[in-house]
Amino acid sequence: MNDSVAGTQGYGEDADALAEQYESVTFEEVHGGLLHLYPAPPGRVLDLGAGTGRDAAALARLGHTVTAVEPTAQLRRHGARLHADTALTWLDDALPGLPVLTGRGERFDLVLLTAVWMHLDAAERARGMRSVAALLAPGGTLAMTVRSGPVPPGRRMFDVPEAETPALAGAAGLRLVHRGGRADLHGRPGVRWSELVFTAP
């Protein structure tokens, strides 16, 4: 595990259970309300904090070229095993700076930040939004799901003020095109998810 990434606290130790949890719901269940906002294939997709690659693999099967970024080595290994039949590029990189991705100079038509943003503190979120916005191709889409509610033991999570993310995105030149929410798919008490979609100019 990349121990220098504070937001991944607890994920390496729990990787086996988390892999089972992540794969117990489908890409369509998680993203169903947003799919009409995602670009049609073939496109260049970046899944930041890809976990076991559930979403990345689904998007690759749709015909996209997908880069899956996951800083926790144990989860990357699960992903490579579970989705060995799918063409994914796996990278070890992390917000807020994303130095590996930034150095590659690629731009993406769709960037997913699923269940990632609340692991960053306020300063990291401000820096991270600038990093993510710089990776979007012209007209590209950024889709985010952000958890609120009780923090599991041993995890690093923060409350993200409702107005903050659109403000950060706007300052980075992105336009809010969708704001919604949904219940927790695993039925955890008090857990809710915000859904935000932005587009680049």
Structure description:
The protein has a 7-stranded mixed beta sheet, sandwiched between helices. The chain has one domain (42-199): Rossmann fold, CATH 3.40.50. Helix 6 (122-133) links the parallel strand 4 and strand 5. It has 201 residues and is α/β, with parallel strands linked by helices. It is built from 7 helices and 7 strands; from the N terminus they run ααβαβαβαβαβαββ. The protein has helices at 15-23, 27-31, 54-61, 73-82, 99-104, 122-133, 164-171, and strands at residues 44-48, 65-69, 88-91, 108-114, 136-148, 175-183, 192-199.
What is the residue-mean pLDDT, rounded to a whole number?
A: 91
CATH topology term: Rossmann fold
CATH class: Alpha Beta
The main pleated sheet reads as: 7 strands, mixed
* β-strand amount: 25-35%
What is the strand arrangement across the widest sheet? 3-2-1-4-5-7-6
Unreliable residue stretches? none
Number of helices: 7
Question: How many extended strands?
Answer: 7
Helix proportion range: 25-40%
Principal-axis shape equals globular
**CATH fourth-tier homologous superfamily:** Vaccinia Virus protein VP39
Which structural class do you get from the secondary structure elements?
A: alpha/beta
What is the second-level CATH architecture? 3-Layer(aba) Sandwich
Count of spatially separate domains: 1
Q: What is the N-to-C order of secondary-structure elements (H for helix, E for strand)?
A: HHEHEHEHEHEHEE
Mind telling me the C-alpha Rg? 15 Å
Span from first to last CA? Answer: 36 Å
